[in-house]
Write a sequence for this structure.
């Protein structure tokens, strides 16, 4: 058989389970909105490239939702009393501290292009304000999953929603929306928060739920719950045995999750398909 599998060390799993009570992992879907960077150039007819950058981008707002809960939250610069409107004021200190606290309390974060943009942008602002790195944080990037497993014309979140017949992203308006938000325009700020929250609850979450059964590198939820006979991705107990399969290490029992579609294998003679040998 040429099927590739992800090996899970039994000794490591056993060490993680001895004497430790299980709990549901804190899984957070999130998305950040940033301001544009600011730079100098000479103008039309001369040098039109940016000659010197005056200010980096910073975090204007972020929206988040705990997987399994109904409420989507948002934190923005203008939510705080010390907020000063203006295009040249860096006002994201409170937003950055709130985001650091959120990520520190999360076991897993989910984002579209999160590994390349959202998490790195957050880390940049943490560094700027002297905050420590977020420890032991695992991430799921829906953009990476789409590019790895599927052949599509585009891999943007909006296109994934269109392809999967999911309600699409809201129209944020033109670049002017971002400028008006920095200027303190309340109408633009309300629209930005609505746009930011919908990116999480209306598009990111349903795309993740459709894709998660395909993710071979998805964090193993059983390491948190200690429920070894549950699906390692969605933690469901609704599964079916799908017959023996021959692997390099011998015959194994394949198990299919009826809820998310995840497939994994276990020892052939076990009564319960425990996720402690091999993941498919």
């Amino acid at each position: 058989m040429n099927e590739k599998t992800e090996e899970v060390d039994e000794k490591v799993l056993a060490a993680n389970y001895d004497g430790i009570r299980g709990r549901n992992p804190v899984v957070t879907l999130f998305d950040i909105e940033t301001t544009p960077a600011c730079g100098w150039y000479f103008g039309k007819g001369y040098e039109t490239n940016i000659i010197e950058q005056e200010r980096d981008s910073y975090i204007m707002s972020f929206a988040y939702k705990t997987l399994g809960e109904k409420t989507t939250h948002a934190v923005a610069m203008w939510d705080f009393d010390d907020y000063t409107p203006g295009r040249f004021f860096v006002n994201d200190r409170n937003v950055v501290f709130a985001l650091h606290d959120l990520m520190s309390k999360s076991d897993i974060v989910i984002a579209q292009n999160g590994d390349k943009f959202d998490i790195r942008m957050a880390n940049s602002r943490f560094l700027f304000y002297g905050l420590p790195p977020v420890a032991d944080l695992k991430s799921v990037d829906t953009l990476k999953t789409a590019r790895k497993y599927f052949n599509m014309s585009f891999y943007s979140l909006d296109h994934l929603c269109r392809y999967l017949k999911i309600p699409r992203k809201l129209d944020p308006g033109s670049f002017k929306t971002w400028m008006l938000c920095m200027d303190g325009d309340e109408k633009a700020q309300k629209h930005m928060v609505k746009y930011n929250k919908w990116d999480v609850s209306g598009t990111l979450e349903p795309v993740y739920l459709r894709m998660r059964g395909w993710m071979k590198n998805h964090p193993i939820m059983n390491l948190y719950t200690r429920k070894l006979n549950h699906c390692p991705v969605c933690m469901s107990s609704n599964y079916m045995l799908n017959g023996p399969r021959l692997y390099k290490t011998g015959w194994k029992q394949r198990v299919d999750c009826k809820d998310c579609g995840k497939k994994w294998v276990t020892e052939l003679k076990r009564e319960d398909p425990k996720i402690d040998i091999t993941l498919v």
In short: The CA atoms of residues 26 and 106 lie 5 Å apart.
